């Protein structure tokens, strides 16, 4: 069960990084440098990580008996730029189960 929480945190950080890269690197490349492939590639990576984030959020909810409020806050963090970084630093790091 600890592995699910560990994977959740790792995927949350990767998802946050992919979102920031998509917004602040790929999108400007698409619109200012006329390179739409940047969004295609980064968007696909971000999409896969977003789905993985949701899957592991569900796993953590079940394994650790988290509330639907916890899931909603995790989801909100995932759609806000830098949200997953903030949540990991302030909350998820402290919630990490110890072995």
What labels describe this entry?
mainly alpha; 99 residues; 85% helix
Assembly classification: single chain
Approximate strand percentage: under 5%
The outline comes out as elongated
| Helicity level | over 70%
Q: What is the strand tally?
A: 0
Overall average residue pLDDT: 92
Give the termini separation.
10 Å
Radius of gyration, in Å, reads 15 Å
The major pleated sheet works out as:
none
Order of helices and strands: HHHH
Count of individual helical segments: 4
- Helix-strand category: mainly alpha
Low-confidence stretches: none
Number of domains: 1
Element layout with pairings:
Elements (H helix, E strand, L loop, with lengths): L1 H31 L4 H28 L3 H12 L3 H13 L4
Helix pairs in contact: 1-2, 1-4, 2-3, 3-4
């Amino acid at each position: 069960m600890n592995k699910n929480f560990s994977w959740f945190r790792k995927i949350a950080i990767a998802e946050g990084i992919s979102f920031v890269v998509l917004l602040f690197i790929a999108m400007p490349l698409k619109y200012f440098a006329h390179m739409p492939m940047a969004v295609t590639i980064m968007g696909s990576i971000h999409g896969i990580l977003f789905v993985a984030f949701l899957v592991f959020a569900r796993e953590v909810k079940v394994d650790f008996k988290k509330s639907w409020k916890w899931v909603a806050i995790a989801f909100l963090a995932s759609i806000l730029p830098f949200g997953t970084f903030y949540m990991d630093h302030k909350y998820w790091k402290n919630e990490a189960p110890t072995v």
